[in-house]
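stuck on this:

***
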Amino acid sequence: MVREEVEEAGIKDERVLEALCKTRRHLFVPGQQRHLAYLDMALPIGEGQTISPPFVVAYMTEALAPHPSHKVLEVGTGSGYQAAVLSPLVAEVYSIEIVASLGRDAARLLRRLDYKNVHTKIGDGFQGWAEHAPFDSIIVTCSPERPPAALVQQLREGGRMVIPVGQRYQQTLVLFTKVNGKLEAEPLQPTFFVPMTGRAERLRAKKNDDGIPRLLNGGFEVTDGDDELLAWYYVRQAEITRTSEAPSGEAFLLFQNETPGRSAQALQAVGVDGRKISALELSMSLRTTDVQRGRSIRELPRIDVSFFDEKQAPCGSKSAGPWFGTISWINKRATIAVPPKAKLAVLAVGMFGATGEMGVDAIRLKVAQKR
């Protein structure tokens, strides 16, 4: 997992890679999820919270530039996995969890595994942990609209904060550096985290959505100043291709994979209220070149739509596809039934371990509302 899904995806810090290798992720997920522990994916850990994908943990850790002398604050202990990865890289880790049951379980597990330099408490991470400030770096594993003022105050001058900020379903992972008492921002990549609860949620300007899914940048035309794709996250082995031959607009997304089983994907989360919506009408343009299945019949190009309830627990999934061989540009449609409990849908488009090339464009999402 570390070699194929983390190192080959761009993580270079050898200390971070070693820490990830030595951290037994299966111990930090519920028993029913352990068969998925070494896949690069988020997993539910209860109480509406998730454990981040290993690549994201490594990416955020690397962005902190951890040093053996550093004191780090983590907001959102969750199951304790991120704190465990940080433990061998820094001097002290102080981790806060607002969900009491998760905080207690994580504390017991970290003690049992002998992570002596990890200190935990139950509380609202929006307020930080003032008695142990200032911190050399701060990592936040849930998403507020903007960095909480208390965390800014508790970050030392020159220190780094890695935090996902933004709206409910569209967030950006940002590296902030404190310079002359203020934060300087370096946007890193689109992402998706559970929202920060507690005071951050009470202060959120846009608290709720209407449950109608809105897919953004389905034509892959919108990029940032570095030509990185916007709105989609966890993009692997995919690049924007600009050509007059694109079925819609001037660009499409091209996936390429030569190694069976290796990820080539792009994801986007949307809100969906299963009480209001009966089905999603999905359409797209695609082409394939010499696509062959990976290590199993499931490793073929497709679009997966995974649904989650209000506690982030999986409540159903369905796929459009698969596709293989060589296909010229063609339009495809699929109807995806929405489970009544659904509050969130995650669309994943990609090769899913297959080899070859696949181009996708003009992904659109319409809804069928219940009468």
User: Anything to note?
Assistant: The domain at 233-369 is CATH 2.60.120.260 (Jelly Rolls). Residues 100-112 form the longest helix (13 residues). The longest strand covers residues 277-292. The chain is about 15% helix and 40% strand.
